[in-house]
Amino acid sequence: MGIPDSVLLKPGRLSDREFDIMKEHAMLGAQTLDAALRAFPGVKFLEMAREIAATHHERWDGTGYPAGLAGPAIPLSGRIMALADVYDALSSKRVYKSAFTHEIARSMILKDKGTHFDPDVVEAFAKTEEQFIHIRARYVEPHAIAA
Predict the structure, then answer these.
(1) Residue 1 and which of 8, 28, 31, 74 are 20 to 30 A apart at CA?
(2) Cβ–Cβ under 8 Å, residues 132 and 109
């Protein structure tokens, strides 16, 4: 949201400046939802959407962005979306990479338990991973899965 296509669709690695631009999407999304909340105050799904937009790139260990929140200071909705967003990014084809298999995405998520991700959210993912597999299979692009 609000990110130039030259950055969003770049096939190679982003420069530091491009990555800084990419990181702006979290606050741009939150600001957009702030405007919606001014027009429709108290609408719960907009409040949660704003919370998710603003916090889905925070990391359990505090090294995320935009606010550097850590642990339980990150709203649960943002902690859940952080894992879901990474799973989707790993298991989907992008202009700069092929899709990873579920097994590879799973191992990467498990490795980041307690650093990137809330350990309880990772445990919930592990207990429900069959659902992730079925949902991914329903939406996967043909020939999108690599090794």
Answers:
(1) 74
(2) no
